[in-house]
Specification:
Blueprint lengths: L1 H13 L5 H21 L1
Length: 41
């Protein structure tokens, strides 16, 4: 549940940005945060 909520938060945050660089880095940013959350569980 924590992971799902984190993912939704990241997606909603990413949707506020429409620069190509940010969109291209979206998956990398999500993976970094996902593994960061996983490490703290």
């Amino acid at each position: 549940m924590i992971t799902l909520n984190a993912k939704e938060a990241i997606i909603s945050t990413c949707s506020r940005f429409d620069t190509d660089e940010f969109i291209n880095n979206r998956n990398k940013i999500w993976l970094e945060i996902y593994f960061g959350v996983k490490r703290h569980l």
